[in-house]
Amino acid sequence: MSAALPVAATGIDTGDTAWMLVATALVLMMTPALGLFYAGLVRSKNTLNTFMMCVAAIAVATITWAAVGYSLAFDGTGDLIGGLGNAFLSGVDFAPREGTTIPELVFMCFQATFCIITVALISGAVVERMRFGAFLVFAALWSVVVYAVLAHWAFGGGWLQEGGTLDFAGGVPVEMGSGFSALAAALVVGARKDYGRQALLPHNALYVLLGAGLLWFGWFGFNGGSGFSTGDPSVLAFTNTLLCPAATLVVWFALDLMRGRKVTAIGAATAIVVGCVAITPAGGFIAPGWAMALGALAALPSYGIIVYRTRTRVDETLDVLAAHGMAGFFGILFIGFFAQVAWNGAADGLFYGNAAQLGDQALAALAAPIYAFGMTFVLLKLIGLAMPLRCSEHHEGLGMDVTQHGEEAYVTGEGAILITPESGLDVPVPVADPG
Q: In terms of Cα–Cα distance, which of 367, 344, 386 is closest to 235?
């Protein structure tokens, strides 16, 4: 995803194109994998709704990206936003995009999968209480006014990229964009009705582990594909995507043992995500040894935020801020210290004599969270003026699967019964007979 590694493109390279087709499919797979990861973390009565938010992101973000998002992110070289020259995919065809050896159609699809998963990530902050219809509206608007803008800043020719910020695969728009937007969403939508009063535990740790494993698998396309070729940048990022999360896992095991004397499955799954996120901006810019160091160090702030958040009234339910916002923030800054031109061909960091690079990275680490948090906060407030953001307490108690979709993830009987709300004013909701 980094445009800091230009390619002297003279035409289509079939090998590069084949790899990018595979990488695009891998990244798209990450969104259902995220749905599985998230679904295991919620209560059983909200399993389908949680997964459906990720499915909805595929539908909504794909359309908005093709309509205007791609153009706003990658058309032109405006400092703050791109143009509309590629709106509704005008001019996007089989010819290579400038600086690449792959068809622009493939480039567009690859970038679309990034937008899709970023929208899905934010749902983790508002699961178990946000109305599905309100989320669809939010997903459509956020993908344009927040994601497309941040993508343009970081690697679409915007002011951060032009100023020298290095972001290989989306630390600015994907990781910090989702993490700090998730915090804003949690604050606006509010906490679940039972938050702080009873234990709200993950209902299926196997889903969580399987989802995390599939996310790591897909991340090889996420980072490895962001070099847009089969050349050295992609190979380096691919390698670092193996090393960094493995180091995070080891340190997370140690932290779990020190805190609770047990290595937890949920902790292991979270560690995988944190390590993958941390290497996302840095994958093509740091040496493999530094990638392992990044994974080990990134575990500390993310773990700390997860522990601290549970002591607050902020119900940022699935810790998107800790796993994505903080790990992405850490990864962006890490580049400023340990980028190495011998490995990346672009720039050194402070440790190798280039202090200015740390300043460029720090600017991105400041600007992206402010914009993502602020715009998301305002956007949800405006949507809230037009429609309710969250369901009633009664519907929340019944579960989002039944009230939002009329289905259940786990049917224990046959036939159906009708549950009528206590007020008697709402339409009865069909649910499977619990036996």
A: 344
For the entire predicted model, the pTM comes to 0.92
Residue 372, Cβ neighbours under 10 Å: how many?
Answer: 28
- Alpha-carbon distances of 220 from 16, 43, 154, 295, 330, rounded to whole Å: 15, 30, 21, 16, 20
Distances (CA, A) of 94 to 27, 107, 127, 174: 21, 10, 40, 27
Q: Helix or strand or coil: residue 429?
A: strand
Alpha-carbon span 338 to 362, nearest angstrom: 13
Residue 82 in contact with residue 95, Cβ under 8 Å? no
DSSP letter at 420?
P
430 Cβ contact partners less than 8 Å away, ≥ 6 residues apart = 406, 416, 417, 418
Contact 129, 395 (CB under 8 A): no
**Residue 176 neighbours by CB under 8 Å, 6+ apart:** 150, 324, 325, 328, 329, 332, 365, 368, 369, 372
pLDDT digit string (tens) for 96-124?
Answer: 998 899 999 999 999 999 999 999 999 99
Output the CA–CA distances (angstroms, integers) from residue 334 to 283, 303, 305, 359, in the order listed: 11, 18, 19, 12
| Span between the terminal Cα atoms of the chain, in Å | 52
DSSP conformation class of 44: G
Q: Mind giving me the DSSP string for 53-120?
A: HHHHHHHHHHHHIIIIIHHHHHSS--SS---STTGGGTT-SSSBPTT-SSBHHHHHHHHHHHHHHHHH
Summarize pLDDT for 290-312 with one digit per residue, the tens: 999 999 999 999 999 999 998 89
